[in-house]
Design brief:
5-stranded parallel beta sheet, Rossmann fold, 554 residues, Helicase, Ruva Protein, domain 3, 4 domains, 23 helices, single chain, alpha/beta
Length: 554
């Protein structure tokens, strides 16, 4: 049997177990781009025996749970409610699950936790490792299958199973729970949902094979199906247990009723069963998963909670979807001119006559915080004076940061490279502590400074900030990007980096600190699409005022 056929058979086996116990197993994550294999597996979802309901990542709350039908309520003069997609047990198929917001994931997770009897199928089309369905939802689903790179020849039907038995009547051996919990710990799985799902899978596996008591094959299959996609570490080899049989008298005293529960595979066999399903690059995948998990706390979630503010905009017509807020005054203003006509048509109707077309919704303009990235020349030419000016300007700008929603970062380039001396911050106390003593001297690697600034700007955008670049230099770049002393290559590298920054649409300001304005810096500012400002004898306050004036409209 080929590797592709084996993967397909495992996916079909997982689907058969899900059909036996959809509520207990939660559902399945199908990670695959649109393909014949995915379409074939999705078509077999009818085997679950529940109605299929397709939902999308932007579905409204009233479509999920139901709610008041505004148009019908206004027309009937009484509250009319509609039923949502999840009002009855169903198989909810979430398309493009990798784009699902955390709010939708939390609502679907609560629905699964309530045990409503349905299940969820997540169609994950992520192309990269960090593009995946929300973990809060996926950990509640027993099975994770990958169908990429399967051929039509791999889609062979598995062998016919015997008559199933009810899952509720299937019993697990007494040692199944400790064995599965210990196995989860060895693979670094810290969620207790995984062993619970594995036990439910073992019962379902036994049920579809017509067994009333789960056997070693059921426990092994359940561990392999549930744990393979959840592993976060490779298990260490444990010491072999003592295989010396117990004395005759101990065996005689053992409970005769436990004979049927001792036929479980040992820990090493379970470990090998799960390891056999891990991909060859499992260590790289585990590292990428940990990195993505560590970045969650400072990525898009923080942006939605803390970095977005809004100001009111004129209301607009629309429908209530559970998330929009009605503008009562604007709604009444829209309905008022029609009252005489509506009153003639409905003379007996009480109160105001409001129609669905009168509804006006509130709108807000969201603006993200701005990050000023100071990229300062700390080379040997007047480094001490220039750094002091930059330090003072940063402190002055941060003093007004709360009113302008600004963050500030400081990058210094000197010698053969650059470094971030001050990460993005709004803390004035932290800034003064870090800027107390800054190094200076060496060559002028302007290209390295621009490269560091571009990387920091990209990172800040992923956290919901709007970066703005402020470059302070005298224009005498003499160190190339690879660290070699070459003025021509240094100038060419600077132009290349400036063009790359311009393509990212990062606004900027070029401050020329030389005694005489440098034409090369003016040209570089044009490549950056940034404002050019010569300040040969500027102090900290003038730099702060110049930055505020030049970027005030940004």
């Amino acid at each position: 049997m080929s590797e592709g056929t084996d993967r397909w058979h495992r996916a079909r086996l997982a689907l058969a177990c899900l059909a036996a116990d959809p509520g207990g197993l939660g559902g399945m994550v199908i990670r695959a781009r649109p393909s014949p294999a995915r379409d074939t597996l999705v078509a077999r979802l009818a085997d679950v025996g529940l109605p299929l309901r397709r939902i999308h990542p932007t579905i409204a709350d009233d479509q999920l749970w139901g709610g008041v039908d505004i148009a019908a309520t206004l027309a009937a003069g009484r509250v009319v409610r509609n039923r949502g997609v999840l009002a009855d047990p169903c198989t909810a198929v979430l398309t493009m699950a990798e784009r699902a917001e955390t709010g939708l994931a939390a609502k679907l997770a609560q629905h699964l936790d309530r045990g409503a009897g349905g299940c969820a199928i997540l169609l994950d089309e992520g192309a990269e490792a960090d593009e995946a369905a929300p973990p809060a939802l996926t950990e509640r689903l027993a099975f994770h299958v990958t169908l990429d790179n399967l051929r039509l020849a791999d889609l062979q039907e598995p062998e016919t199973l015997p008559a199933p038995v009810p899952v509720a009547d299937v019993r697990l051996p007494d040692d199944a729970a400790p064995a599965l919990v210990g196995l989860a710990a060895r693979f670094g799985i810290d969620s207790l949902r995984a062993p619970l799902l594995a036990m439910a899978c073992a019962r379902a596996h036994a049920a579809i094979h017509g067994r009333w008591l789960a056997e070693a094959d059921d426990i092994t299959a359940a561990a392999a199906l549930v744990y393979a996609a959840r592993a976060t570490q490779m298990p260490e080899t444990e010491d072999q247990p003592d295989d010396t049989p117990p004395p005759e008298e101990d065996r005689d005293r053992s409970d005769p009723g436990q004979g049927e529960d001792r036929d479980l595979p040992n820990g090493d066999l379970l470990v090998e069963a799960v390891k056999a399903l891990l991909p060859p690059d499992v260590l790289d995948m585990i590292a990428a998963r940990r990195k993505a998990k560590a970045a969650k706390g400072s990525g898009s979630g923080d942006r939605r909670k803390g970095n977005r503010r809004g100001r009111p905009l004129p209301p607009r017509p629309g429908r209530l979807d559970g998330r929009a807020r009605i503008d009562l005054v604007a709604t009444l203003r829209a309905a008022a001119p029609w009252q005489p006509i509506r009153r003639r048509l409905q003379p007996d109707a009480p109160g105001l006559l409001i129609r669905a077309g009168d509804i006006r919704l509130k709108r807000f303009e969201e603006r993200s915080d701005r990050l000023l990235i100071f990229t300062v020349d700390a080379s040997g030419s007047a480094a001490v004076s220039r750094l002091n000016e930059a330090k003072g300007a940063v402190e002055l700008l941060l003093a007004e940061a709360y009113s302008r929603r600004d963050h500030v970062a400081l990058i210094a380039f000197r010698g053969i490279g650059s470094e971030i001396l001050l990460p993005p911050t709004r803390s004035l106390v932290q800034t003064k502590r870090r800027l107390a003593a800054l190094p200076g001297g060496g060559g002028t690697p302007l290209a390295a400074g621009l490269k560091q600034a571009a990387e920091l700007a990209t990172q800040s955008r992923s956290k919901g900030l709007t970066p703005t670049l402020v470059v302070m230099t005298d224009g005498r770049a003499n160190v190339a990007l690879d660290g070699t002393a070459d003025r021509l290559r240094a100038a060419a590298d600077s132009v290349t980096l400036a063009q790359a920054i311009r393509l990212q649409h990062i606004p900027g300001l070029m401050i020329d600190m030389s005694n005489r304005p440098q034409p090369a810096l003016r040209d570089l500012a044009a490549e950056l699409d940034a404002a050019y400002l010569p300040l040969p004898r500027a102090d900290a306050r003038r730099v702060s005022e110049a930055v505020t004036g030049a970027l005030g409209a940004a």
